[in-house]
From TrEMBL:
The chain crosses the membrane at residues 6-23, 35-53, 65-90, 115-135, 147-168, 175-196, 216-238, 259-284, 311-328, 360-377, 389-410, 417-436, 448-468. It is found in: Membrane. This is SSS family solute:Na+ symporter/sodium/proline symporter. Belongs to the sodium:solute symporter (SSF) (TC 2.A.21) family. The keyword Cytoplasm does not apply. GO terms for molecular function: transmembrane transporter activity. It comes from Edaphobacter modestus. Pfam families: SSF. Keywords: Membrane, Transmembrane, Transmembrane helix, Transport.
Length: 481
């Protein structure tokens, strides 16, 4: 255990050094919120990769792969489809050059859309941050089972994340992601073939598992696969954290180049994650991990290499450390993003428009702490990371993604329609758990994504066509003619 503890300690120390090194460069609101709009493509690639692949993939996706096999790639595939579309959105987003998604919503629609957007983002992003704390707590418990319970581990992980995020904002987040992205990608790509070899080779893995683990739909229906695919795809298309990275880019060209690297990195890394989980299900079909399958990647790092040579044990420790670092990285991104909403879209916009940079930085750090505590509270009542992830993805997918895409690509979308769409998508998602049991089984047994998205889109399209078109000033604000 001393080796694993040493690797975790070294990673935490490096992340702290990176954060403190960026602290001196943070002087203004733009420095803290969008890194002074100075990030080159190389840094953008890894901060986008690190912000996207976190506990949703490392825990939720891995749990799905352990139980059902490669059909778990439907969840990842939603992100890949979204990435192909984002290539065309990135330059437009950088050209807009604001701070947050609600900035875009008010500029293109109105103030009500901004406020409702903030509410939807807070619900989504703190939920996503909360299950990062669960993942980090699980890893600390696996390494120190006699000293750290999973719950205590969540408190410790929350303290790390709040500290790292508060120090230097986007600047520290982006450059920590550069280190973490390189570490995770390299370690996991090396660990997979070694783990397959220790399982007896790919034929042995294939023989040990049900045939459905290797089929396109596995043991799920096509509709169930779409319920994995759609929330992920739509979350990515409207993801505020991603847009903030584009707002932080040095130029429109850097934003476009970064998306290319992001697409390649995401496809490779998410496929490797699922393959490790599938291999782990062949190696460890029973025992402790079968009762908590979300821990399969960390369990492989701890037990898949632990009885081998010193080099293999080091690889196992690095794999565990990379997973831990990725969870911290993702939590940093998803915690930082809603904090910027409270500061930029509420505090500066409505309460203190003339606040000094010093006061804005102070309030920004306070918001990180408060939202971190709220996310920690949510984590204490969550058991299924996959279920929590799909819930969070659906709020954002139904409430915000349609109006965000319409802001860039549909000139006819109106302010009244955007407000209705955001409100409908949020209400249907949040209330679905209570409404669904009273509906016919064919509808009530479905996840919220289909009814919430359909209702949101209908509201956006129908009300837009029933109301006056937006003014030329609103369209010109996004660079449209």
């Amino acid at each position: 255990m001393s080796l694993y503890a040493s690797v975790i300690a070294a990673i935490v120390l490096i992340l702290l050094i990176v954060s403190l090194a960026r602290l001196g460069k943070v002087k203004t609101r733009a420095d803290y919120l969008v890194a002074g709009r100075s990030l080159p493509a190389f840094v953008l690639v890894f901060t986008l990769l690190s912000s996207w692949i976190g506990s949703g993939s490392l825990l939720g996706g891995a749990e799905n792969a352990y139980q059902h096999g490669f059909v778990a790639l439907w969840q990842a595939g939603g992100g890949w489809a979204g990435l192909l579309l984002i290539y065309f959105i990135a330059p437009r987003a950088r050209k807009f050059a604001q701070f947050t998604i609600p900035d875009l919503l008010e500029t293109r629609y109105n103030q009500t859309a901004r406020v409702l957007g903030v509410i939807a983002i807070l619900l989504t992003y703190t939920a996503i941050t909360s299950y990062q704390f669960i993942g980090g707590g699980d890893i600390l418990h696996l390494i120190f089972p006699q000293f750290i319970t999973p719950i205590l581990g969540r408190y410790i992980l929350a303290a790390f994340v709040i500290l790292f995020t508060a120090i230097a904002g986007m600047s520290s987040v982006a450059y920590m992601d550069l280190f973490i992205g390189l570490l995770a990608t390299t370690t996991m790509c090396i660990a997979l073939p070694v783990l397959i070899h220790r399982a007896g080779g790919w034929p042995a893995v294939h023989a040990a598992l049900p045939q459905s683990h290797f089929q396109l739909f596995g043991d799920l229906s096509f509709i169930q696969c779409l319920e994995l695919f759609l929330p992920t795809c739509l979350l990515l298309l409207g993801n505020q954290s991603m847009y903030q990275k584009f707002f932080s880019a040095r130029s429109e060209k850097d934003a476009s180049r970064a998306v290319v690297g992001w697409i390649i990195g995401t496809i490779i890394l998410e496929t490797v994650i699922v393959a490790i989980a599938v291999t782990g299900s062949a190696l460890f079909p029973t025992g402790e991990v079968s009762k908590a399958p979300r821990e399969i990647l960390a369990y492989c790092g701890l037990h898949g290499f632990g009885d081998g040579s010193p080099a293999l044990r080091l690889l196992g420790a690095l794999l565990m450390g990379a997973i831990f670092a990725k969870i911290i990285s993702t939590a940093n991104n998803w915690l930082f993003s809603p904090a910027t909403n409270l500061v930029n879209d509420i505090y500066v916009r409505y309460l203190y428009p003339k606040a000094s940079n010093k006061k804005i930085l102070m309030v920004s750090r306070l918001m990180v702490v408060l939202l971190g505590i709220w996310s920690l509270f949510q984590s204490l009542g969550t058991e299924s990371v996959l279920k929590k992830a799909l819930y969070a993805y659906t709020i954002y997918s139904a409430a915000l993604t349609p109006v965000i895409l319409a802001a860039f690509f549909w000139r006819r979308a109106t302010a009244a329609a955007a407000v209705a769409s955001i409100a409908i998508g949020t209400v249907v998602t949040v209330s679905w758990e209570w409404v669904a049991p009273h509906l016919p089984p064919a509808i009530g047994h479905r996840d919220a994504i289909f009814p919430a998205l359909l209702a949101s889109l209908l509201g956006l399209v129908v009300i837009s066509l029933m109301t006056a078109p937006p003014s030329s000033r609103q369209l010109a604000s996004l660079g449209e003619q």
